[in-house]
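Quick start: read one record
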Amino acid sequence: MPSLKDIRLRIKSVQTTQQTTKAMKMVAASKLRRAQDMILALRPYARKQQELLQHIVQGAELTVESPYLEVRPVRRRLIVLITSNRGLCGGFNSGIYKHLQVEAQDRFGGLESPANLYAAVGRKGYETLSKLRLPLWVDENIDLFSGLSFARVQETAQQIMRGFVAGQWDEVWLYYNQFKNVATQVRTGERLLPVRFETPPGDGGLAIDYIFEPNQAGIVTQLMPQILQVQFYRAILESNASEHGARMVAMDNATENASELIRELRLSYNKARQAAITKEILEIVAGANALAG
């Protein structure tokens, strides 16, 4: 049985850890507010951009040609895994990797399919892919979360888009955690390239009469790269907000667990202290009886 000193030291250690988890929860909550504001502001813009492009491409009589719409046999596929740079966020990173693992088996013939090429946005994803020795597009972590901005994300998006146009890969998929609320993240896998629309032509009121100025092809040429960059940026912001939400919940749970552990340790301490006092009293009584007898 541990001594009273050992129990006191353990209580002090758990209290110190609890203070740390409380501070981390407050920091995560502060970052979450900013990240949540960013993604909630971007979502309507990104959605409306995509709808506009869909109306133009599917609702017009002319055939629109764009390298980003080209569907070709998949000889090479780029899969972008978006995780966090740091841990202590529950199952945030392991969850999206497991989701990729399951979908890769169903869609791509497994993680180790020769057609798959990987890119890791976030250090945790890079460590996982490196440990499995999966082929990487760039042999380093693509860190977009340190000083997160559209300009930095845009540069990476442009590199991915240039690779698609040049034929380095025939498909681009994004795997990330979509932010739903503080406690919930939706593991998401979506195709970025080639651009494909879920709604078929003429369905759901897509027939809108547009007047194209200067022309339809020019508008699509200008819009398509911008929309793809915004969609990639949205995925990064979704993952960023999800990470802070997951860390906030994880630190809150850790704080509650520390409180429960402290209660149990204090109960053990009081029991051990009471047992020690009782033992001393018995020894005193026994000694007094021996002297009197």
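The beta strands are 77-82, 116-121, 171-181, 184-193.
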